[in-house]
Amino acid sequence: MLKVGIFGVGHLGKFHLSNWQQIEGVELVGFYDPGDDTAQEVSEKFQLARFLDADRLMDAVDAVDIVAPTNLHFDLCKRAIRKSKHVFVEKPLANTMEEARELLKLTKESNIKVQVGHVERFNPAFLAIENLDLNPMFIEVHRLAQFNPRGTEVSVILDLMIHDIDIILSIVKSEVKSIAANGVNVMTETPDIANVRIEFNNGCVANLTSSRISMKKMRKMRIFQKDAYIGIDFLEKKTEVIRLKTPDDLDAFTFDVETPSGETKTIAVATPVVPEINAIKFELEKFRDSIINNTPAIVSELDGYRAMDVAHQILQKIKNSNSSAFRK
Fold first, then answer.
1. For labelling, which of 89, 136, 263, 306 has a CA lying 20 to 30 Å from the CA of 208?
2. Residue 93 lies in domain
3. % residues pLDDT > 70 (the chain)
4. How does pLDDT run across 296-311, given as a tens digit for each residue?
5. Which CATH number belongs to the domain containing residue 188 in this structure?
6. How many folded domains does the chain comprise?
């Protein structure tokens, strides 16, 4: 039985807690949260022990789930790793690149599993295309949200866009060549809306727009490659694949198109089966499996570091752009 402790039981932490209680092979030992009102509510609702000392909880478990504010990730991760505890930590991995680099070093020297909570990797709409041969040449992303004070201790880049950065880095098999970015502070002291262009060495280009001050929600990614267009709606859990017909497209809607050369090609429009899964529960189950089976974490600490690295480069580009505009 894998013993797990949760650190932070705010809005997202409660979701983690309720899901852990439904996962087989896991004993939820308790939680640590300095907020007395929240802690009392959780203790009563979930009948779970509250630990007043973080180290005591770490000593009592095999793995920790860190769902605390970003500025606390480094300290909690560092303490857990030094105690040889497996670590699940919500995105972003850490608050600064220096902290992230130290966590990479500590993890490399240990014998533990670390998984970063980039939950969109486990979104059923994205899982629906996991068997497709992806070779993107252009990617367009819109991730828009209505304003919510929760999570605004970090920029929209580290709050929202980092999900899409992680996914793009996982499907584009090339290194980043250049980044251009613009962003605006509206409700907070950090960018609340941003537009970013990432170019890769293999020629792929990704355009990302993220906002946390929009009137409506949107979480869509469009992937264009030589032989296909793939549309993913992370919010509505829908996926669409449009490509030249192949023998595998038995259930697809098809139509013929005549090319300028006079050749007729058959286009297939398919809607892959989207699995009915709970993304948070699924990512926690995969973390459990990586520990029990001694297999790599699906979203490793290196994945979390790479997403952070690109996110911080974007923030620096925005800072430089805004500084130039101010000087003019």
1. 89
2. 2-118+280-299
3. 96
4. 999 999 999 999 999 9
5. 3.30.360.10
6. 2
